[in-house]
Each structure stands twice: as C-alpha cells, then as structure tokens.
Design brief:
Blueprint lengths: L2 E5 L3 H10 L5 E4 L6 H10 L2 E2 L3 H7 L2 E4 L6 H9 L6 E4 L5 H8 L5 E7 L11 E5 L3 H6 L7 E6 L4 H29 L3 H8 L1 H14 L3 H17 L5 H12 L11 H8 L4
Parallel strand pairs: 1-2, 1-4, 2-3, 4-5, 5-6, 7-8
Antiparallel strand pairs: 6-7
C-alpha cells in the first residue's frame, strides 16, 4: 500500500488527507515550521507527522500538493529539488500553462483541480478532477471516500482548466457582486438597488459575499491564475484581474468573515 505525503493540511488539504486515509492508507505530513492551527488540523484528520519535508519526500510514493496558488510553484520546486521519484499530484488552483511548466520538473506528474469545499462528507459533493497518464491511480486512492474523483483526460493541464473555468464563474461572479455593492454604496443608491433586486436575491447576495470574505486573500491569487488562463486561450483576462483587486482589498478578513456588509464595504471602498 503506498505512502502518501500531503503538502499541506490547510482547511482543504486536511480533508483531502483524511479522505485518502479512508481504507487505512498511510498519509504523512511535515510539521517543521508549521503553525499550531496546522498541527491541530493534521492531528484531527489522523495524519502522521514525519517531521521534515526531507523525510516526507524520502518516505512518500505519492505527494499531494494542496496549497494556496502562490505557493504552488515553490512547493513543486522544493519537492523536485529533493529528487522525488514518485507521483507528484498538483491539486492547486493554477492556470493550465503553469501546471504544464510545473510538470516538467517531474518524471511522474498528475494534474488535479478541486471543485467544492472541504471534503469531510460525501454529501458536500467535492470533486477532485484529474488528468495525466497516471490519473486513474490517483483516483483509486479515494475510492469509497467523501472526496469524489473524475479522470477527464490524459493531458496535463486539463484538470487545471476545469478548475479555472468553474471558479471563473463561481468566485468571479462573487467579486462582481462585491464590486457592484461597493459602487452602489459609494453613489448612495445601494438601498434602491437592493429594492430592485428584491429581498430574496439581496439576502442571497449578502450571505454570499460575507461568507466568502475570510477566503478573499486566497481568492485574489486564484483570480490572477484565471486571468492567465483566459489570456492563454486568447480571450480577455481583464475582468478577473479586476476581481483579484477586489478580493485583495478584503484580505484583512483572513482571520474571519466580516461582521457585517457595512464593515466589508468600508474596507472595499478605502482609498489607497
């Protein structure tokens, strides 16, 4: 049975590691330099601490990289620099072009894209899309687990493209709604706009933007990856570049959601 190395047990990564444990596999992580919160998540997920990245790379047959977009490249490089010979699976929200570039550092590489929230329950419907020659091997790791998988292609970059195009709407439209509310607030017409929207859509919009505010710091980088994906397809990427700026303005809520829409809009409309 393969040993799986997980980098790293964040909110999403911990659930992926726990899903891989579903039939008794060995899942390890490296605690060196990690926060107390990360330690707690890893312990709660049942992951085994192997101490250092050197030990993780030496002991793992498969490495799953689940990290914020801006960490994807340095994580891949740090593993490649340690001459990892197993299967490296990049599960991060990065452009297909960047994924292909990362794959060139490894002899064995699988492209992954996660759609949905943390995969603690099957009912959540979280899906790991996979592409690459060895994608089926990775999909089998999660058989019977709360994390659904789907192999979509032998081509590296396909799973990343799926993730990028899905998030382009789900998260991109959230940024658009935040910006619309900010403009309406600045011009003093938000109440009138929300009357026109109607109570149901207004309530849903408020819940959506407030519920995403603590993740805005991570969404910002994802929007830039989506913009790069659009540009690679010879389509305009400017909307998602603007969405990145919208989310960047809300990065102050990293430790928790905004308490109110008014608090969120104050941060959004602060002049630099």
């Amino acid at each position: 049975m393969p040993t799986i190395g997980l980098i790293s047990p964040g909110a999403m990564g911990a659930s992926v590691g726990a899903a891989a444990l579903s039939d008794g596999k060995n899942v390890v992580w490296a605690s060196e330099g990690r926060s107390a919160d990360t330690h707690q998540r890893a312990e709660s997920a049942g992951l085994r601490d192997c101490g250092t990245l050197d030990d993780l790379v030496a002991s793992a047959d498969i490495i799953l990289s689940v990290c914020p977009p801006h960490d994807a490249e340095p994580v891949a490089k740090s593993v490649a620099d340690r001459n990892f010979s197993g299967v490296f699976v990049d599960c991060n929200a990065i452009s297909p072009m960047k994924t292909v570039k990362l794959s060139e550092q490894f002899d064995r590489f699988v492209d992954g894209g996660i759609v949905g929230g943390p995969a603690w329950r099957s009912e959540a419907g979280t899906c790991l899309y996979l592409s690459g020659i060895e994608a089926n091997e990775i999909a089998q790791l999660f058989t019977g687990s709360p994390l659904h998988t789907q192999v979509i292609s032998d081509d590296i970059g396909a799973a990343s493209a799926m993730k990028m195009t899905f998030a382009a709407y789900t998260k991109g439209s959230t940024a658009l709604l935040v910006a619309i509310l900010g403009v309406a607030e600045r011009y003093g017409v938000r109440e009138t706009l929300e009357q026109q929207w109607g109570e149901s859509f207004t309530t849903q919009t408020h819940q959506r933007v407030l519920g995403s505010s603590h993740k805005a710091w991570r969404f910002s980088g994802e929007m830039l990856e989506i913009a790069e994906t659009f540009a690679g397809a010879e389509l305009p990427g400017g909307f998602h570049q603007a969405a990145a700026e919208v989310f960047e303005r809300l990065a102050v809520f990293k430790e928790g959601n905004a308490d109110s829409l008014e608090q969120l809009l104050v941060e959004l409309n602060k002049r630099s």
